[in-house]
Each structure stands twice: as C-alpha cells, then as structure tokens.
Amino acid sequence: MDGAYKYLPAGLESRLRRLAIKVRLPVEGGLQGVHRSPHHGSSVEFADYREYTHGDSPALIDWAVYARTDRYVIRRYQEETNLRGYLLLDTSESMAFRLLGPGTKLDYAATLAASIMYLLASQGDAAGLTLFNEAVVKQIPPSRTLEGLRPMLLALEEIQPRGRTGLAAALHQLAEEVRSRSLVVVISDLLQDPAEILRGLQHLRHNGHELCVLHVLDAAELDPGFENLVELRELETGARLVIQADEIREAYRQEVLKYLDELRRGCADCLAQYRLLDTRTPVEEALHALWH
What is the CATH number of the domain that holds 264? Predict the structure, then answer.
C-alpha cells in the first residue's frame, strides 16, 4: 500500500505486518490459503485414511501403512483454503461521539476496519465492506488483493455519520446474501436493542459463519465524569435532556453493566467473539488480543 490513506497510514501498516487472522470454524473457498476447509484435499494437516480405489494415483499410497497392514490406503488431509471476510461498519450519527478518546468512535472503527481488511488481503484472503446506519448504505464486494482494497479505503474516508443504528437489519440482510461460510466482523457502538442485534447474529451463526463483534465506545460512555447540572443531547435524534448528574451516575453505571452483560452472554450463546474496545486502545493492540 502507498500509506496515503487516512485510516491506514504507513506507520500503522508497518505495525500490522506481524499480525494474522485465523478463524476457528471451517471455511469454504476455491483458492489455497491458511484456513481449514470442511472438504478433504491434499494439503498439510492430516485428517484420516481412506482405501485406495481404481483411478487414484499410486503416488498417494501410504507405503508405511501398507508395510504394516498389507492394505493400500491414502492419507486424507484437511484442505487449507481461503477465507472471505465481511466487515459491517456502523456509520450512524452516534458514531461521531468523542469526549475522552483521541478521535471519534467512527475514526476508531474505520481504522479497525481498514486494518482488518489489510490483514485479510495481505494473507491472500478476501475482504468486503458494508456500511450501514438505519439500513445498508454502501456495499463493496470482497477483494483479495491490496489494490482491490483501494475503493474500500476511500469509502471509509467519505463517510458522513448520520441517522440511527439499524444493525439488526444489516445482519439479516447479510445472512440472506452470503451463502458460503465466512468471517463476519461487526464494528459498531451497538446502540440498538440487544435482543434485536442478537437475533441478527443468530441468523448468521445458523448459516455457519464465524462472528466477531467489536463494540466501540468512548470511555466517557462507560463512566461519565459529569457533575452537577448537565444538559445532554442524543446524537441520533437531537433530543435534549437536563439532568442532575450526581443523582443518576450510579444508576447509569448499573444500566451500562446490565447492557454489556446481555451483549456478552448473547454473543457467547451464538459462539461470537465479543470485544469491548475503548477508543484509547491502540488498534494493533486490540487486534493482537483478538486473534492471538
């Protein structure tokens, strides 16, 4: 890459080179890669044996087994294959929030998306990008070349956060469109009813996809330091509310903990990796913890 992209600067690109993405579930694809396939082929990881049949190449016979058993058998391997990764990035108005982080939630989320796409393409896998708010607003099909990432990286730079979060609808839409087993990475502040989000994740999991949910929040959303009388504005609706911060701080913390626990439990139930990410956490550190 030429390092000229806002969300994939040269310094970050060089730090990402020691990382890799490997999935836990078998994936399907047509090219040789680094991920296990559900189909048997002739690659590097041994699975089991099968009987030699007419038409098989004699070169495939395991002669050591023949010497012990007087049987002609052929080793079967777990085929190593390529992966398709689909990134769903939240571009709703709430992603423009920033208080304690070095940038907005959207800046951090877009950097995560760019980094994951770069890692996938660097290891010969395909990466695609879906941008959504109330509905899907842009889809760029997967590419497995670094040059093919260019329209996705440029699309990240053109995002104007607006509207409300409609993650659940985007998840269901992707589940209907993507048929082969894939990696689906959700990057969002998840400001929607957790039950609706979890139904969308279950839909994808039912179809055999591996799921990763990156929950991006500014630290102030987890523990606001407001005191005395404060006016708050809801970014996605513009609604305003004046509160006595000291009186509601503990109740707010308890509600946040309850909300996070529901998301964690629900993701665990559908075998989705879940990571809560503070926008102050370096991106490469977050990704290292996720896949290593």
Answer: 3.40.50.410
Closest by CA position to 129, among listed 8, 2, 282: 8
DSSP class of 192: S
Backbone φ, ψ for residue 286 (5° rounding) = -65, -40
Q: Are residues 201 and 277 in the same domain?
A: yes
CA distances from 44 to 22, 41, 77, 191 (A): 16, 9, 7, 44
pLDDT digits 0-9 by tens, 255-284: 889 999 999 999 999 999 999 999 999 999
Parent domain of 76? 32-81
Measured CA to CA, the distance from residue 145 to residue 174 in angstroms comes to: 22
Q: Hey, which residues does 188 pair with through a beta bridge?
A: 215
Q: Which helix (H) or strand (E) holds 189?
A: none
| pLDDT per position as a tens digit, 3-62 | 689 999 989 988 998 888 877 765 555 444 445 555 445 444 555 566 766 555 576 688
Nearest to 196 by CA among 176, 170, 215, 168: 168
